[in-house]
Amino acid sequence: MRRLVALAALAGLFAVTGWLGAGPAPGATPTLVAGLVLLIGHVAGHAMTILGLPRITGYLASGLVLGPHVLAVISEPVGQQLFFLNQLAIAFIALAAGAELHVSQLRARAGLIGWLVAATTGIVLVGVALVVFFVGPSMLPFAAGLTPIQMAAVATLLGVIAVARSPSSALAVIRECDAHGPFSETALGVTVAIDVVVIVLFAVVLATCEVLLSPGAALDVDFALSVLLELTAGIASGAVIGLVLSFYIARWPANIALLLLGTALVVTEIAHGTAHYVQATHELPLRLEPLLICVTAGFVVRNVGNSGDAFAHAVERVSLPVFVLFFTLAGAALDLQALRRTWAAALTLVLVRAGSILGAGWAGAAVAGDQSRGRRLYGCTFLTQAGISIGLALEVVRRFPEWGEAFATVVVAAISINQIIGPVAMKFALQRVGEARSTRPAA
Amino acid sequence: MKLVLAAALVTVLAFAGSRFSFLRLPLTRLSGASGIRNILLTGTEFLFVGLLLGSSSAGVLDKKTLTGLAPLLGMGLSWIGLLFGIQWQVSKLGDSVRSGLKPAMIQAAVAAGLVAVPFYFLFRSLLDVSDEWCLVGALTLGAAASDTAQSALALVGRTVRGESRPLAQLLRTVADLDGVIAVALIGAVCWLPVLHGGTGSVAMWAAMSIGVGVVMGLVVVALTSYRATEDELLLILLGTVLCGGGMALYLSLSPLFVNAVTGAVVANFARSRALASLQSLLVRGDRAVYVMFLLLAGAQWHPSGWSVLGLTAAYFVLRVAGKVAGGWLALHRSLPAHMAPRVGLGLLSHGGLAVAVVVNLQQIHDGSSQVVDAVTTIVLVAVVVSEVLSPTLLQRLLGTGPQGGTA
After folding, report:
1. A252/B12 Cβ within 8 A
2. Which residues in A lie closer than 8 A to residue B365 (C-beta atoms)?
3. pLDDT-based confidence at B242, cuts 50/70/90?
4. In chain B, fewer beta carbons within 10 Å around the N or the C end?
């Protein structure tokens, strides 16, 4: 109740402020909106816990309400001004995700993780691609005039994108539930690994589709090389950054959170700057993923040297504001127009993906011989989807401009739905398995 | 790209500064050069680092980049304001604070008046700006002049022995408290309609300043009335600082004042556990915020040429006169006769809050007034000069220094 009163007071104050009009102070509006996002996100997150839903759903919902389609407090210009905070948050969350991966524990479950990665990649890719290929012409608004080969290309690309996950959402739910145990570690390990697999898979499929769809076109070796370079450079630079951080934290273990925020900023900008430079000078579409670099860096700090605990603790201390900011802005960016236009196709895609993932999770665990309580529930933790999927869809727009836009609209609409249902399913699974704090037996 | 790299650079420098400045250097290394030592110990050198990075020199932090980094400045102002206000928990104010409050107010008010009144007429005769802007400039200088920084006292206070101890303690209490005049005065400057394009009245903007501060304070009280973890408190703190600061900047009010009001409401109405945690979080980030502040203030600084040096000298002299007169007026009854006329010399240290007051004005003015550039140059140069001279003057007052030995 007191939170609702606080929310009402904030809304009243904001209304009066807006009515009085803005002065000349630079940056006043984004500062004000960033503050509102944090406070309203906090209240919305708590409101969701009363309903038994994850807080992240509250952050997304508050973003949706504050976003350009409803109240327009986070208007498009303000969203652009806050974009650098969003990029910072992605890199920071990736550092946090890396910090969650303990090599000793992962090694013990390497078989299970391997089978889950293989099963969810294979079954989801094939399942989604087959359904889209056969049902697509009547389901997808842009598929009516496509040849069977073009349809196969579209189906395969949608299949690959359906494989992608959202490590940030997974980590946010794990943190919120304060989940510890083999189930949550396996889920996060698979989620992070699949992001790497998807990048490789997408590169291969995209290059193949270009050959199939453009008569006479040769296999784009440059593109394949750039993907290889992208992965190698990302992992190598992440490892170097991780070693430097590990060395530094071991000697000067103060103000680590501020150091990590600075690191996240620098990594993001250098990754994007390098991509622009290579594109401009060598015409290579090199996309250094800050996500990959930071996950690797976090993983190295966690597992090399003895500063892992201090690092993980520092990351944890400041991760809540970062999560609230990131997911509320993500909620504001959800494309309701796209969802309204293509809801039927998007919903079909979501259902097929969900079915494939749930089946694949069960199958992967069964093949690996997992007898744990959570063997049937792994799929629930893999439904989240965001970030990287949008990046892949935009690459399709760039390569296939004739139908890429419509393709991306469906993908974005499906991601919007997955953003909402993924965290709910994941929280449910963590609670059922008993690794969430609220359901863990007392020590 | 440049904006984010600049933000990263400022973050890294603020981080480094907070680690290596502020009484962390070994004192023996620079013994005998206490003025320079004071500058290094208080991080004042970051003003020059900012000046070197700013558009007047290297151009790394140019005008466009600084505009992009404005939220950091807004956040910094709010942080300082909140930290200032949250210390005013009425039930916990000790006897020394209660007894020191009146002298602190008197000396600060005298110093502010002795600087603001002459400068109003100086600006009117020297600058080609309206009377309202002269008033804005003069009152801002008064606000900056009234505050006493803690740095010299922290530095010299270590060497104080014997009979000078009570005086050092009294000076510390006065320096702790006289920021109230600075914060209130810069708050009041922002009520002047000239800063709002001539709209509204002083009473209306005063009510808005206090109203926003009180409502934000009550929001924090409501949100922290539940049991909250440390990361939730950090979230609430950041949200409050950004929201209150953003709202104040949006309305061309003072984030320092508005958040000081918020802090005072929180200090007196929040649950004690939450209050202690919020205070601890604010203090933990204080140094980094201050260094960031000095950097960005330095980067925004456009030294206004030699002509302003005369005004700077006048400001310095008037401030010294104000502190000496104010110190005598406030403390002559409680000090020995030979000490009272000189006690103001122990209150010359000039730093954090004065820089914050200037940055506050930089943030909300509409860029059309030469007063702002002049005020910035006057205060920043005076801060540097004061930080060089104040430890020596304080040592003489307290009878310490190299001859006096160190504790």
Report:
1. no
2. 24
3. very high
4. C
